[in-house]
Design brief:
Length: about 250
Amino acid sequence: MNHSYLRCFFLFSILTLGSCNNPKELIEVQIPEREVFVESEVTYPNPSSIKTKQGPMEMPGLPYQFDELSDLFKPDHLLLHYNKIHLKYADQLNLSLHQTPIEKDTITTIVFKADNKNEKLKNLAGGYYNHNIFWKTLTNKKDTQPNAELQKAINNAFGNMSGFKKEFKEKALELVGSGWLWLISKNNSLAIVTTANNENPLMGHLMLGTPLLAIDLWEHSYYQTYQDNLHTYIDNCIQHLNWEFANEQYLKSE
């Protein structure tokens, strides 16, 4: 018989008998505590705290916090888009404007002057300006409404609001490659157009009209939240369109 087995059995018997012979003796056994996992709350910076390295262009801030559009964008996704992609356009645009004749021009003037002769400036100015409009196009208030004047223009151009939404989505899905979706006004008439890459309707070689609304159709704008489901991205954007901003832009275009 195995001697180790006998030794263990003998020790166990002694311990058992000892405990039985002394009923008042208690053996303290430590019960491990149950582990409790508490998720730490994620905090996001205030958009106003995100700054460019130098002027003349500044980050515009956002009309909402990073976690206040969570049914449209994951907060981490929105933070990345604003703090990395948009900020990079702003910083690189500032570097390219430094000590040039147009350094003190407004961004709309710079965008108007940007053309195919200077692809770098066109890309940087467009990327910066387009995002400025994009953030204002969206609101954390669902289903804001155009005022009576803009609604009349929508009815004239698209029949009604349903007609606008249908064409807005169709135009977005028709775009091949990266670009932007716009609601524009020209001569008091509305149209929905797309532009490739970072071009926009104000650029002098396009002269399409005044932007009222803009939606980013670059993959970086939706993939992290929606993967390749562009349909749902556009549907959700439509629910968050800031018609109060569009009203202001339409008034400026008259």
